[in-house]
Amino acid sequence: MTDLFGEDKSEEQAPEVQEGSTGRIYVVFLIILLPVYFLVRHIGGPDMALTATLCLATVMIAVGICWDLRKHIWLWAVAVLLLMLHIPLILMLHWPHYWIPGVALTPIGLLDLLIMVGIIRFVQKYIVRETPDNQED
Q1: Which helix (H) or strand (E) holds 25?
Q2: Residues with Cβ < 8 Å from 49, sequence gap 6 or more?
Q3: Cα distance between residue 52 and residue 34, in whole Å
Q4: How many domains does the chain have?
Q5: pLDDT means per 10 residues in the chain (137 residues)?
Q6: I need a surface site. Which of 8, 14, 53, 88 has the fewest CB within 10 A?
Q7: Considering the entire predicted model, what is its pTM?
Q8: Does residue 76 form part of some domain?
Q9: Quick check: is 110 in a domain?
Q10: Does the residue 130 lie in any domain?
Q11: Which residues contact 33 (CB under 8 A, 6 or more apart)?
Q12: What are φ and ψ of residue 2, in 5° steps?
């Protein structure tokens, strides 16, 4: 079938992202993050709650970047391991009594995100074996 400009549209093309799906992703994101925020706030205070929520959000973004691997159980195991590695950092660090602006913490969060995506891709490199296209016998 051809469209208005004569381009051939076949069923092989990837379906476009629905406009409402982005909003649903944000709602799911908030549904997961808000209970964590309030639980940690009750246990350890607002500074610890914000940091724990941002760590969880960073892991969720890293998994979102590697979403093509979602059917592999090892991705979820690595994500849980990364979350578990963040717990001692959150609990053992001395939290300052003054406000640190988010702009100052952005490079640390981006570095954390890049490290997590790098770890996931490193594990992918050694766990997922792709079969060669041309196998000669």
Answers
A1: helix 19-44
A2: 37, 38, 39, 40, 41
A3: 11
A4: 1
A5: 50 50 80 92 85 89 91 93 90 73 83 94 84 52
A6: 14
A7: 0.72
A8: yes
A9: yes
A10: no
A11: 53, 56, 57, 60
A12: -110, 150
Identity at 51, one-letter amino acid code? T
> Could you give the CA distance from residue 59 to residue 110 in angstroms, rounded to a whole number?
11
Domain assignment of residue 35, given as a range = 20-92+105-123
Return the residue matching tokens 């998994």. 63
Three-state secondary structure readout of 64-131:
HHCHHHCCCHHHHHHHHHHHHHHHHHHHHCCCCCCCCCHHHHHHHHHHHHHHHHHHHHHHHHHHCCCC
Residue 25 lies in a domain: yes
Contacts of 91 (CB under 8 A, 6+ apart): 44, 48
